[in-house]
């Protein structure tokens, strides 16, 4: 492949028309279609109001994401980063052989995670690799949560790396069984919420699509990025009932249980009769809360628990980059655990650990907190956890149950302790 020829194909994102400049092709016809419903909607403002400043950041581009000249483009792949889909193939072709070597060093990528490499021969400086979920109706909530994590983690990485522009492909391909329209709703609302809450430094987000995908994207964009107050009102009846929480994350109210919206809660007892404290990593909004106050709250909650023997369960399931605690906070936390809470802690069950979390845990238990190493148990499946703590003793978020069933198979009751 001729490098000069390839470079002549590259497209400057700054030359592309932003969404707020693109006229509504339906025009007055759309307004007439929904006139009858507007009166009843006046008291119910759209959850996605007209924002010209956000629309100026959005671009819908029909073409190959690999050819875009921006800070980063997104590659959709599988867990081993070896998927052969048209997007990955084009990115590998244009980036050159160095990218394939770099991908091997990443040791794969879990569903919902995002990892970064250089762009090599691409016009884009970086490539953000993510893995969309395989969709099964039985585990719909888990698939929605995973897809949300893909888009959220890409945006978080772009923010952390001070990227001016990022170009998304369609993350969950038809090859993985995710309906395009359902996936597009999650993509649009997640990006919209991120730009509202955290995206001041991000100047442009491009959605790169094919001829087949463009009609769906063009149809749904006005729901989340209306270009006028009139379009906002006209789109309101079409917005789904489920629009997620304040970050766009999927919420299923009828399946919520008391732990689902809380980072931590006091539960029952393990098989030795010890109090169990449960923490949910994905529910810790690290970027949105005052971590000093969170530390004080943690101490307040733990004080009365730690006067006698206890165990802790930490669900790391589908935890994203924005949920990871920074090293300084971890250092303070471990110092407190070392001095105050370690004595009566009998077991710390780390459920669904990632490679990164295993390395961090090993480092801290080996060098920072003495006497903790033998108390920490990495638990790959709920089946293992239930040999020590009966399932009826703890409330487990639906997304954890569905993730475990999808990855590890259905739970089979067990009665002997293995941890």
UniProtKB/TrEMBL annotation:
Transmembrane segments: none annotated. It comes from the Eukaryota. Residues 45-225 form the Macro domain. Residues 15-35 are annotated as: Disordered. InterPro entries: CRAL-TRIO_dom, CRAL-TRIO_dom_sf, Macro_dom, Macro_dom-like, Macro_GDAP2. Belongs to the GDAP2 family. PANTHER family: GANGLIOSIDE INDUCED DIFFERENTIATION ASSOCIATED PROTEIN 2-RELATED, GANGLIOSIDE-INDUCED DIFFERENTIATION-ASSOCIATED PROTEIN 2. This is Ganglioside-induced differentiation-associated protein 2 isoform X4. It comes from Salmo salar.
């Amino acid at each position: 492949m001729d490098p000069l020829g390839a470079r002549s194909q590259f497209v400057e994102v700054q030359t592309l028309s932003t969404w707020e400049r693109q006229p509504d092709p339906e025009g007055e016809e759309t307004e007439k279609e929904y006139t009858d419903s507007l009166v009843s909607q006046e008291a119910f403002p759209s959850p996605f109001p007209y924002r010209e400043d956000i629309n100026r950041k959005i671009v819908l581009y029909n073409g190959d994401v690999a050819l875009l000249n921006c800070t980063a483009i997104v590659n959709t792949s599988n867990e081993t980063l070896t998927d052969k889909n048209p997007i990955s193939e084009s990115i590998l072709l244009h980036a050159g052989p160095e990218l394939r070597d770099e991908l091997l060093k990443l040791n794969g990528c879990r569903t919902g995670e995002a990892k970064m490499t250089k762009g090599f021969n691409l016009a884009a400086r970086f490539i953000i690799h993510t893995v969309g979920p395989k969709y099964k109706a039985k585990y719909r909530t888990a698939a929605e949560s995973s897809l949300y994590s893909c888009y959220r983690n890409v945006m978080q990485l772009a923010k952390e790396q001070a990227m001016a522009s990022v170009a998304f492909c369609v993350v969950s391909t038809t090859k993985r069984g995710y309906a395009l329209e359902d996936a597009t709703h999650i993509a649009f609302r997640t990006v919209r919420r991120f730009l509202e809450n955290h995206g001041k430094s991000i100047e442009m987000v491009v959605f790169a699509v094919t001829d087949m995908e463009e009609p769906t994207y063009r149809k749904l964009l006005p729901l989340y990025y209306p270009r006028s107050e009139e379009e906002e009102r006209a789109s309101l009846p079409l917005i789904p009932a489920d629009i997620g929480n304040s970050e766009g994350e999927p919420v299923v109210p009828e399946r919520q249980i008391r732990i689902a919206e809380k980072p931590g809660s006091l539960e029952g007892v393990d098989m030795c009769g010890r109090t169990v404290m449960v923490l949910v990593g994905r529910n810790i909004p690290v970027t949105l809360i005052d971590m000093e106050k969170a530390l004080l709250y943690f101490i307040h909650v733990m004080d009365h628990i730690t006067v006698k023997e206890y165990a802790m369960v930490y669900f790391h399931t589908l935890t994203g980059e924005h949920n990871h605690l920074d090293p300084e906070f971890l250092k303070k936390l471990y110092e407190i655990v070392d001095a105050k809470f370690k004595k009566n802690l009998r077991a710390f069950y780390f459920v669904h650990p990632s490679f990164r979390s295993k390395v961090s845990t090993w480092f801290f238990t080996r060098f920072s907190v003495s006497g903790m190493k033998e108390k920490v148990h990495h638990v790959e499946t709920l089946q293992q956890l239930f040999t020590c703590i009966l399932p009826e003793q703890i409330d487990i978020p639906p997304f954890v149950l569905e993730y475990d069933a999808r990855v590890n198979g259905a739970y089979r009751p067990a009665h002997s302790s293995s941890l």
